[in-house]
Write a structure and sequence with these properties.
Blueprint: E1 2-4, E2 16-18, H1 19-26, H2 30-38, E3 54-56, H3 57-71, H4 76-100, E4 103-108, E5 111-118, E6 125-132, E7 135-142
Antiparallel strand pairs: 1-4, 2-3, 4-5, 5-6, 6-7
Length: 144
């Protein structure tokens, strides 16, 4: 079993995307992105005047969520409202993952085990998140 104990994949603070990249990633046109910015739904990183707009990972995720809700038939204002609620929860999820995530084990080409550490302070059971063939589940392992 290959062990990948890397936590750095959660450190997304320094990822920066140009407006063209964001448009390609999300399917949202550059024109729409500029409109959303004018409406204060999103904000670009402050750069020199005349420089291309750039967005951080947090804004990229907000754009993805807004577009996802628009694709589900919500109005733009409702989509933004729903995306903002997700934004509120994101720091809590990130804190949990940063604290609890201990590593990743690749068991097979299509099976990965995410190590979430011990279930409690007794350290008698370990919690594993399992991703296999696109399906996810949890497993509790008794520690001898």
């Amino acid at each position: 079993m290959e062990e990948i104990p890397e936590k750095s994949f959660l450190a997304t603070d320094k990822l920066i995307f140009g407006i063209g990249q964001v448009s390609k990633i999300t399917g949202v046109s550059s024109r729409q992105l500029r409109y959303w910015e004018q409406q204060k739904y999103i904000s670009a990183i402050q750069t020199k005047k005349g420089a291309s707009r750039q967005y951080n990972m947090h804004t990229l995720i907000r754009i993805v969520n807004i577009q996802r809700f628009l694709n589900r038939g919500f109005t733009l204002s409702a989509a933004v409202e729903k995306a903002l609620k997700i934004d509120e929860a994101a720091p809590v999820v990130k804190q949990f993952m940063t604290t609890q995530f201990k590593g990743l084990k690749k068991e097979a080409d299509n099976k990965f085990l995410l190590d979430f550490g011990y279930l409690d302070n007794s350290k008698k059971q370990r919690v594993w998140g399992i991703i296999e063939n696109g399906e996810t589940s949890f497993e509790i392992e008794d520690i001898s």
